[in-house]
Amino acid sequence: MPSIETNGLTKRFGEDVVAVDSLDLTIEDGEIFGFLGPNGAGKSTTINMLLDFIRPTEGSAQVFGMDAQREAAAIRERIGVLPEGYGFDDYLTGREYMEWAVETKDADDDPEQLLDLVGIREDAGRVAAGYSKGMQQRLAFGMALADDPDLLILDEPSTGLDPNGIQHMRSVIRDRAEGGTTVFFSSHILSEVEAVCDRVGVMNEGRLVAMDSIEGLRESASGQATIELECASVPEVDGVADIDGVGSVDVAGTKLTATCTDPSAKVDVVKRVDRRAEIVDILADNTSLEELFNQYTGGGRDGDGDVPTGDAVERVESQEASA
Amino acid sequence: MSTVTVAKKDFKAARRSKLLWAAAIVLGLIAAFVGYVSGNAPGGDTQQVRELFRVLTLILGILLPIVALVASYLAIAGEREGGGIKFLLSLPNTRREVFIGKLLSRNGIVAGGVAFMYVAAISTALTRHGAFPAAMVFGTLLVTLVYGGTFVSIALAMSSAAASRSRAIAGAFGTYFVLVILYVFPIVSFADIARWLHTTILGAERNPDLYNAVQYTSPYLAYRKAVNLVVPTEMREIVFMSSVPDEVSYGSVEANEALPIYLQDEFSVVVLAFWLGVPLLVGYWLFERADLE
Questions:
Q1: Separation CA B111–CA B108 (nearest Å)
Q2: For testing the chain A interface, which of B1, B18, B88, B91 should be mutated: the one with the most A CBs within 10 Å?
Q3: What is the CATH number of domain A4-219?
Q4: Which CATH number among 4.10.410, 3.10.580, 3.30.70, 3.10.620 corresponds to the domain A225-285?
Q5: How does pLDDT run across A28-66, given as a tens digit for each residue?
Q6: Given a cut of 60, is residue A318 above it in pLDDT?
């Protein structure tokens, strides 16, 4: 049974805002799923529907086979959530918040241990409202971990965390996933998703525009790879441009730059040049997932809205005018 | 179970609010002051104390709605605007449990304020008069808690309907204005408006019972009439004088019984029950259906 399944899930706000448009999503038990997309792509709206914070206009969502709306309470027994837009606005300490989460979940966890796990045990006696954003994020993450949930839903979990915090959170997520927890990881930061997820779904303008493993996405990229070779002397370029998969070759002084349409052609370029000139340095640059992400999402809010057609890419007919 | 956990957390946070403590202390001081200046009523010590509690209910009639509205208007709207609702509903709580939990805790807070006043009043009464008319003290306490509960219900409904803090504030102000001020303010009160519509626009004969019935829809007047149910007969207040027949003297038991049933003191129970229950149903219905973002 999939952990999360949505069928034609749609949410409209008013007449003409379609936040989520006929989303069909299946997240299998035990996977770490990355839910990627620019701001306003509909990621949080989807999560809010999974949690029954908001109600779908059409379609349905199921968590562990239970209807997100009708069986919200039973679902909440089995999930841990790091929500977006939360606030610690009661006059309670971090420890009291954690104790409250543990008590509400009827969990056996030791609140101290959870506080320790997310690195805020020393500050647990302070009022949570006074925490920095990063510390609040740690506390919220710790509360989500209580009662070892079967599914972790994390909405932009790295917000406000320092690099150490991000590293640590990743390792905790991986630990939990190894223990059998399904993880639904929503983020607009590609490297975040790349670092932890098995599979990725890319949202844009309320629609799922790509769904694959990280490797699969990379392969489906129509982008190019470049290789720069710094040589001891001015390299000769004869024949380099004739190698299969090489688009163009450019020499500037002792530096040769080849643009490859097929990334595997880079090796051939190095071999060919090395026969005639001593190579001092190599700089290779694959199409970054960053570029791929921009391709899928048309640059997000800041792009011109051109989304290329392709196997994994759906044409988005209209682009909402940037506000 | 969850309901209790929600209420406990809410109450715990409220207990740390300096503002609430300040309000409770002011309420206590008001009660102590009333206890100190009263005592000029005819009769013995017990009668003095009874009179003190009667004055206390008159003050509570105007003051308690403010206390209850202020204590409750952010119960739901504040959580929505501040993002606390995200935690409440990510954890295994249903919306019903959150709603009822908030209801319990906010009633508890209001009851705490009332308790401050009663403790201060009882202390002054015992010190000055050495009398404790238990029936009247506990009777008025009960009626007062119910009255406070009606405004907690109303505020909670407003809070559920409002998606933001500012709308909730407007709702609380509006409620006090409509349900208290507009019923008691001379010339433009609901009864005056009803009389004007009835006699001037419709050209009908004056019908005081009708205007009083309009007036009786207020929880404020219902409270004053409900207090009559728990005080000695001779202390009853005649609220709807214009409906009392000429041949009946104001101070008599018959003054109440001569009224149509819907104007009698007993009917206040119906009015209070309405304001206690209906807003809750509406508020819960709104909260259950709301998109919480």
A1: 5
A2: B91
A3: 3.40.50.300
A4: 3.30.70
A5: 999 999 999 888 899 999 999 999 999 999 999 999 999
A6: no
DSSP string for residues in A96-145: HHHHHHHHHTT----HHHHHHHTT-GGGTTSBGGGS-HHHHHHHHHHHHH
Give me the residue from A76, A86, A90 closest to B92, CB to CB.
Answer: A76
**B180 in a structural domain:** yes
The per-residue pLDDT for range A189-208, each reduced to its tens digit, is 888 888 899 899 999 999 99
SS (H, E, C) A136-172: HHHHHHHHHHCCCCCEEEEECCCCCCCHHHHHHHHHH
pLDDT at residue A304 above 70?
no
Residue ranges, chain B, pLDDT below 50? none
Count of other CB atoms within 10 angstroms of residue B186: 6
| A223 against A316, higher pLDDT | A223
Query: Pick from B50, B21, B23: which is nearest to B35 by CA?
Result: B50
pLDDT of res. A310: 40
Nearest neighbour of A86 by CB, restricted to B17, B86, B94: B86
β-strands A79-82, A246-252 pairing: unpaired
Distance CA A93, CA A124 (A): 6
CA nearest neighbour of A235 among A206, A275, A198, A201: A275
Chain B residue numbers with beta carbons less than 8 Å from the beta carbon of A140 are 87
Residue type, B36: Y
Give residue A66's pLDDT.
Answer: 96
| B40 three-state secondary structure | coil
Residues from chain B contacting residue A90 (CB–CB below 8 Å): 9-10, 12-13, 84
List the 251-290 stretch of B: residues with Cβ below 8 A of A: 289
pLDDT for A175 beyond 80: yes
